[in-house]
Design brief:
The protein contains five helices and six strands, in the order βαβαβαβαββα. With 184 residues, it is α/β, with parallel strands linked by helices. α1 (17-32) crosses α5 (160-180).
Length: 184
C-alpha cells in the first residue's frame, strides 16, 4: 500500500471553507481507495507559536513534522487572505525541517476565495515557495471563486463542475505520483 497523501487545510480558521474543501478531497481519495489523511492548521499545537520554537521544536510538533516527511505527496487547500495566503500557513512552512520536508515532495494545490480570482495569487505565491524548497508541483490546479455560494454549511458543494474538477485533480495527482515512482 502506498504512503498516504496528506491534505492540508491551509488556515487555522475554525470550520473554514478550506477545511470543508479538504474534507471533500479526502472523500474523493477514499472513493479512489488511495490512502489520504487530513491535517488542518486548526490542529497546530499552541506551543509552536512560542518564540523558542524556532530553535527547539516542541515535542508535540514532532508528530506533525513526521506526517509531512512520511506523506507520499501533499494536497494543499489555500484560502486567499488579503491577496495572498494565510500567514499561519507560511509560519507552518517555516517551522518544518529544511530542506527535507518538501525536497522532491509532490504537491497539488486548490485555491479558494469569495472573490472572483479564487486565490490565484495565493497559490502562485506558494508555488514559488515550494519551488524554492525543490518540491514537485503538480501542474493542474483547481480554483474555486465565490466559495461562499458554492459550499453549503454542511460542507457539500453546490457546484457540480467544481466537484468534477476536484475529482479530476485527485485522479491526476495519483497518476502523477505513479509517474514519479515509489520513492516519491
Amino acid at each position: 500500500m502506498p504512503r498516504p497523501i496528506l491534505i492540508i487545510s491551509g488556515t487555522n480558521r475554525p470550520e473554514s471553507h478550506a477545511l470543508k474543501i479538504s474534507r471533500i478531497l479526502l472523500s474523493h481519495y477514499e472513493e479512489l481507495k488511495y490512502p489520504a489523511e487530513l491535517y488542518s492548521l486548526t490542529e497546530l499545537p499552541p506551543e509552536i507559536f512560542l518564540p523558542s520554537a524556532y530553535k527547539h521544536k516542541p515535542d508535540v510538533f514532532v508528530a506533525v513534522q513526521q506526517r509531512i516527511l512520511d506523506a507520499r505527496g501533499l494536497h494543499i487547500v489555500v484560502p486567499e487572505y488579503n491577496g495572498s495566503f494565510p500567514g499561519v500557513l507560511k509560519y507552518f512552512v517555516d517551522m518544518l525541517k529544511f530542506p527535507e520536508s518538501f525536497d522532491r515532495k509532490p504537491v497539488a494545490f486548490v485555491g479558494e476565495s469569495n472573490g472572483s480570482w479564487a486565490a490565484l495569487r495565493a497559490v502562485e505565491q506558494l508555488q514559488l515557495i515550494f519551488g524554492f524548497r525543490n518540491a514537485f508541483t503538480y501542474p493542474e490546479r483547481v480554483f474555486i471563486p465565490g466559495v461562499n455560494s458554492k459550499v453549503h454549511a454542511d460542507g457539500t458543494l453546490t457546484d457540480a463542475a467544481i466537484n468534477e474538477r476536484l475529482i479530476r485533480q485527485v485522479h491526476g495527482f495519483v497518476s502523477f505520483l505513479g509517474c514519479l515512482g515509489p520513492g516519491h
